Amino acid sequence: MTGYLLKNCAAVIVDEGNGPSVRRNVDLLTKGPAIQAIGENLSLDPLPEGTIVQDASGWFVYPGLVNTHHHFFQCFVRNRAELDWTKLSVIEWLDRIYPIFSRLTEDCFYHSSVTAMAEMIKHGCTTAFDHQYCFPRHAGKRLIDRQFEAADLLGMRFHAGRGGNTLPKSEGSTIPDAMLETTDEFIADCARLIDSYHDAGPFSMRQVVVAPCQPVNCYRETFVESVALARDRRVQLHTHVGEGESPVIEARHGMRTVDYCTELGFAGPDTFYAHCWELTHDELRKMAASGTGVSHCPEPVYLVGAEVTDIPAMQAFGLRIGLGCDGAASNDNSNLMHCIHSAYMLQCLTASTRQHAVPAPLDFLQYATSGGASLLGRTDIGRLAPGMAADLFAIDSRRMDYVGTRHDPLSLIAKVGIGMPTDLTMINGRIVWQGGEFTGLDEAALFAAAEAALATVEF
Description:
This protein is α/β, with parallel strands linked by helices and 459 residues long.
């Protein structure tokens, strides 16, 4: 069984369950999928069979990042001037972009998934959750199967959010008919995916989340049946909440979205929502009381121009918080590392308007690691400690970029930012990215295949 001994790490961010701390000038030993030990002079004689020694001098070693909200398919619809948020109203933007989504093929979903996950791995992300709610009828039902295929190719730990939309545009949704499913279709495919892929065991590389797209685009029964299936199969629940739709839900159902979801049972320790920027403090307190978590996606704030999410209040009320890239339609990259810096800086920008203090820089790193693990229901990832999954990334701090910063690795990412790919990314004990290359893969070939698939899309 292969293992690695990372020798002479300048700093390792260790968390044995009592919060992160920095251990200086130590070694880190892995065996198979797990961390075996972190300490000084681990040059065991002899080393466990199959152990590969890696010089880690100058390296800062961090727990792998955990992405908790994305839409991989949108990587094929980014950096396009004709879809610029600043030149269109939200309704105009939706009317232009959804027909494009509806023309994507099965191959597009596969290659856009490879594209998103590759970028995440380069920037230290080791676990990816994707909210795949786009199912054009012509593309078939095996789109998430292809996402698992892409994750296997890259070695990514992948949680698939099986999304869906059931309410027709004629009844108030924003979804073209070509992307609609019935509730029965949606639930049946969620069950198929759980049966085919979901692994609840330690160090699982594949899990499934029941994730209807959002209340405004689904019938009530879709959410009711989602709760029943998820609780029966013991999987997580996810949806979009609090991104401007609450007045619509109130007009339809007589209550805002948090109360609506709570009434349906779509809340609790097995549930997390994306965004939540428009929620009141009372609604945030209700979420905290139920154990419902939030995936904060900071970078869409720049494009959409909406309110800056009140993370200080969420932290003060005890909500579980994770970070997400969000889809490339509202964030044109898949760099969760950058989101840590963006999230912190946005809160600093609005500090004078808040009732509660901005959380410490370290807290933003935790949102992207142990916080994300909590949202996904994982206790085996998100921290570096013996017995935890060997999910980590390393940066060589011996660069001009880090002069004057090396005294505080805990705050480095949030305050300074890391503007380049990692020197190493390891997932489940396997090095998947090192020295500017994907292990065992030809990036040029991946690029050419993705570009060829993109060329089939009609804009």
